[in-house]
Structure formats: structure tokens, C-alpha cells
Write a structure and sequence with these properties.
single chain, about 500 residues, Sodium/glucose cotransporter, 20 helices, globular
Length: about 500
């Protein structure tokens, strides 16, 4: 046991839990609990977006990608930028018409209640499964630190995160995200230089060995119309198109991200947060990929066998090779990313449950105090669900690709139906539902019946959903325009 490192980690866990719980006094209404009262500055929301995109999957999974491959994952990040342009032009103006709490209220305004429940229900399933993988990723880190089993590791982190999210709502999520983002970026920078100093010859040697092994290859422009083209996850075309559709879906239709955009004071501030977050994301992914390339050189120089679990390569080096105190700081940084993502997921799942299911179906008009109690109860319930899924996720392979793959199955249907609502007038609720169901069914087949790379999932699902929705609208009566859309 390295007591100094454990002390640093314990101090972080106690401190961030206390810091987040302090925001309970500001939680007087649903607007406070789910949107932070719309009082957070744009830069804090931007950092919160970065934290939501940067889970433990990113921190332990991205170095592993470069360790075993190259810098090709950055091709996906370029697609992230194109997606932000599309979201700022097409989605944000719609979200800031009136006061919305969830992304799926837009679907009610355009189509009706049934499509709202279908899209909201899809999000709940998607986020629960994807977040369960992230919860398991936490246990990889904690098990390296303490040598404990999965169940104990998951229980400790989920319980602490649940406590401050329950108490402080979205305000706690945003401001703990800011603190945690700076912590894990600082941890990555520290580990970068420690790894570099552990390699005789410094960066020159890293460039020579990693370059000869193809670790710095960024673009793959190969374009041959064959099955292999769709099996490569990180070609230029898969990266640009995959990143574009993936991020348009995640940031434009998924409550986890849309909730942050809705928390901004104005549409322009929301847009600033969205674009500012990309710059940080690009630097961050580059940093983690370079760490993976340097670890490859370190293992080569010392003739070490790679870890049996690929995702352990970065956390294991941190814990075994960094000086006492420093390794504790970096491990705390990895836990920070995990907790910030988990807290956001809990609040997003609770907001969708309350605003898209409980409140519309409740008898009478439930008061604000009652809804706030239900929101906190939903937060606790989802904490239990995510803990259970985290235990099941141990056999799902690479944590980064498992998380993105699960999300991508549902994202195509969500993005397709949102685009039907935003780009067409003829398509009604029945046609949109037919398109979304067709998109989800197609993606389940592609996931479990083909070897197509996950980076193509959202594009395929979106095209199927949009095409089937358009075709179905040609055979169905002209849609009834919901009253909200007529007056919106």
C-alpha cells in the first residue's frame, strides 16, 4: 500500500463530494435542478461539455488505441467540428424557442407525445447501457489501485457521485465538471512528462521508434469500394463521416449533452460553449494518443509484455512507475473524469424520466416541490441501475469502443427522426415512428450480424430512419400539426 497516493485519492474523493453537495441550497425548482437555473457562464458549460465527452473510457482507452495502433482516432475528432457547425445552425435555434428542459420536448412540439416518449425512452436505454460501460471502466482503475473486486470498486464511486448529484443537481454537475476537467488535464500533462523522462533519449528516441512503427500515422485516405472499407474504424472517411454523425447525434439529440446547451443563458452563449469545447477536445485527444505512443516505446525499450487487458496500459504505468503522490494525483484525475461523466448521466436520466414521462402522465398538475422530490428519487433509482449494468459490462471488450458502439446503435435512429422533424413538413408522427423503428432494427442487425466498424453505425442508422420516414409519409394521410408547433 502506498499511503501517500491513497491519501491524495481519498482527499480528492472527499473534497469533490463535499464541493458538489454544497450546491443543495440553490436547488429550489426544476429549472435549478435540471438546468442550473441558467446561471452558469458559457466557458463553464464548455468545460462541462468537455468533461461529458471525456469519460474514463477516453482516459484509459485512448492511450491503448495508440499503443496498439496509431493516431488515426483523431480523424474522428475532425468530424466532431463539422458536427458542431451543423448543430449551431440547425438545432440550437429550435432549442431556444421557448423554455425546454429536455431534447425530446422538441419532438413533442413537432410530432406529438408518442414520438416524444419513443425518443426519450431510446435515450434512457442508450445512456444506461453506455454509462454502465463507463462505470465498469472505473472499476479497472480502482482495481489497479486497491486490488479490489469489481463490485466494491463500482459501489464506492457510484455512491459518492450519487450523493453530490442528488444534493446539488445540474449546478453541482457543471461546477464539479470544471474542477475535474482541470484535474485530469493536469494529470495527463504530468504523466506525459514523467513517461518522457523515463525513456532514455527523450522525444528524439520516441519519434524514431514510434515513427518507424507507424504510431504517428494520422490519415488513412484509402478508398476502395469493398467490405474491408467498412470494417476499418479509423479511415479518413469513416472518421469524418462517423465523427460528424456521431457528434451531431450525441450533442444535438441526446439529453446528456443537450441539457448542458439548454443551461446556457442565451443561444449565442450556448454556441460559444459548443465551439470552445472542441478546441479543448482536440488538444486533449492528441495528448492521450501521444501518451499511448510513448508507452509503446517504453515497453519496447524495456522488453516488457503488454498488459493482458489493453485498457490497463496507462493506469498501470501511472500506479507502478510514477513517484509517490504524483501517481495518486493522476489516478485521482482519472476518477475525476469518471465521476463528472457519471453525475451528468444521472441528472440527464432523471430529467428525461421526470419531464418526458412522469410529469406528462401524472394526474392533475403536480407541484414544483413534489416534482423536485421525484427528480431526486429518480436520480437514486438510476444510480442503482447503472451500478448493475456496470457489473454486467465486464465481458464487453474494449471499454472505449464498447461504449461508442452501444451509443452508436441508438444514435442513428435518434438523429434520423430529429432531422425528419427539422428538415421536412410532410412527415407526420406515424411515419417518423416507422422510420425510427426501422433504423433501430437495422442497427441491431448490423451490430450483431455484420463486421461493419462502429464508426459507420450512426450514418447508416440515420439514413435508414430518414429514408423510411420519408417513404412512409408518402403512403400516410397528411399529418396533424401539434398545437405546440402551430404556436411555437
Amino acid at each position: 500500500m502506498r499511503w501517500l497516493d491513497l491519501g491524495v485519492i481519498a482527499a480528492y474523493l472527499i473534497g469533490i463530494t463535499w464541493f458538489g453537495a454544497r450546491f443543495r441550497e440553490t436547488q429550489k425548482s426544476l429549472k435549478d435542478y435540471f438546468l442550473g437555473g441558467r446561471n452558469a457562464p458559457w466557458w463553464a458549460i464548455g468545460f462541462s461539455i468537455v468533461s461529458a465527452e471525456t469519460s474514463t473510457l477516453t482516459i484509459i482507452g485512448t492511450p491503448a488505441l495508440a499503443f496498439h495502433g496509431n493516431l488515426g482516432f483523431l480523424q474522428v475528432v475532425f468530424g466532431y467540428l463539422l458536427a458542431r457547425i451543423l448543430i449551431s445552425v440547425l438545432f440550437l435555434p429550435q432549442y431556444f424557442r421557448g423554455e425546454m428542459y429536455t431534447a425530446y420536448e422538441l419532438m413533442k412540439r413537432r410530432f406529438g407525445d408518442r414520438i416524444r416518449r419513443l425518443t426519450a425512452g431510446s435515450f434512457l436505454v442508450l445512456r444506461a447501457l453506455a454509462e454502465g460501460v463507463r462505470v465498469f471502466a472505473i472499476s479497472i482503475v480502482v482495481s489497479v489501485i486497491l486490488g479490489t473486486g469489481d463490485m466494491f470498486s463500482i459501489f464506492v464511486i457510484v455512491l459518492l457521485t450519487l450523493f453530490y448529484t442528488f444534493e446539488g443537481g445540474m449546478t453541482a454537475v457543471i461546477w464539479t465538471d470544471v474542477v475535474q476537467m482541470f484535474l485530469y488535464i493536469a494529470g495527463a500533462i504530468v504523466s506525459f512528462f514523467v513517461i518522457l523522462n523515463s525513456i532514455p533519449g527523450g522525444w528524439g528516441h520516441v519519434a524514431e521508434v514510434a515513427g518507424a512503427a507507424g504510431k504517428f500515422q494520422l490519415f488513412d485516405f484509402r478508398f476502395e469500394w469493398s467490405a474491408d472499407f467498412f470494417r476499418r474504424s479509423y479511415s479518413f472517411w469513416a472518421g469524418i463521416l462517423g465523427g460528424l454523425f456521431l457528434t451531431t447525434a450525441s450533442h444535438g439529440t441526446e439529453q446528456l449533452m443537450v441539457q448542458r446547451l439548454l443551461a446556457a443563458r442565451t443561444e449565442n452563449q450556448s454556441r460559444a460553449a459548443l465551439f470552445g469545447s472542441w478546441a479543448v477536445i482536440f488538444v486533449q485527444f492528441t495528448l492521450f494518443l501521444l501518451i499511448g505512443a510513448m508507452l509503446f516505446v517504453y515497453y519496447q525499450d524495456n522488453r516488457l509484455p503488454p498488459p493482458k487487458v489493453a485498457d490497463q496500459v496507462y493506469p498501470r504505468f501511472i500506479w507502478e512507475q510514477l513517484p509517490a503522490g504524483v501517481s495518486g494525483l493522476v489516478m485521482a484525475a482519472i476518477l475525476a473524469a469518471a465521476m463528472s461523466n457519471l453525475s451528468a448521466a444521472l441528472n440527464a436520466l432523471a430529467s428525461t424520466t421526470v419531464m418526458d414521462f412522469y410529469k406528462p402522465l401524472a394526474k392533475g398538475a403536480p407541484g414544483e416541490d413534489h416534482l423536485l422530490k421525484v427528480a431526486r428519487g429518480a436520480t437514486v433509482a438510476w444510480g442503482g441501475v447503472l451500478m448493475g449494468i456496470g457489473l454486467l459490462a465486464r465481458h464487453w471488450g474494449s471499454v472505449l469502443e464498447a461504449g461508442l458502439g452501444i451509443a452508436s446503435i441508438v444514435y442513428g435512429g435518434l438523429l434520423g427522426v430529429f432531422l425528419l422533424g427539422l428538415l421536412t413538413k410532410r412527415v407526420g408522427e406515424e411515419a417518423a415512428m416507422a422510420g425510427m423503428i426501422a433504423g433501430l432494427a437495422t442497427m441491431l442487425y448490423i451490430k450483431f450480424g455484420t463486421s461493419i466498424a462502429f464508426t459507420w453505425y450512426v450514418l447508416i442508422g440515420t439514413l435508414v430512419t430518414f429514408t423510411v420516414g420519408l417513404a412512409a409519409s408518402a403512403t400516410l394521410p397528411a399529418p396533424r400539426v401539434p398545437q405546440e408547433a402551430r404556436h411555437g
